[in-house]
Amino acid sequence: MAAMVTMMELEAGINRLLRAQPVVAGELAAAVRVLAELYGQMIYRRQALLALAELTPELRAALGAAGVAEQEALVLEAPAVGGDGAPPLGARPKAGQGALDIIKKMVSSKTTAG
Q1: pTM above 0.70, yes or no
Q2: Res. 53: pLDDT tops 90
Q3: What is the CA angle 33-92-15, rounded to 5?
């Protein structure tokens, strides 16, 4: 079976990185940024699992920095999205609609509220 990462593991890794590398001057650390984009793409494509073999070395390094462990998946593939025209993994969302934009809005709302 292929080495896989679940969406829950990815989310936990992003949270660990955010605790270890807090937002400075409204900027996320590079590893947080790339993992947030990946997380957003998984949500958009409705993927529960991601094969490590499909990821770039930059994404694999960011996963390692986040402490996301590889696992042998019991399910080889997430359910198919079903021809909804989802872009290929790694494609950029429209401006203002990416996971990074959403996280920045969340962080800025917390800093202005507190």
Answers
A1: no
A2: no
A3: 25
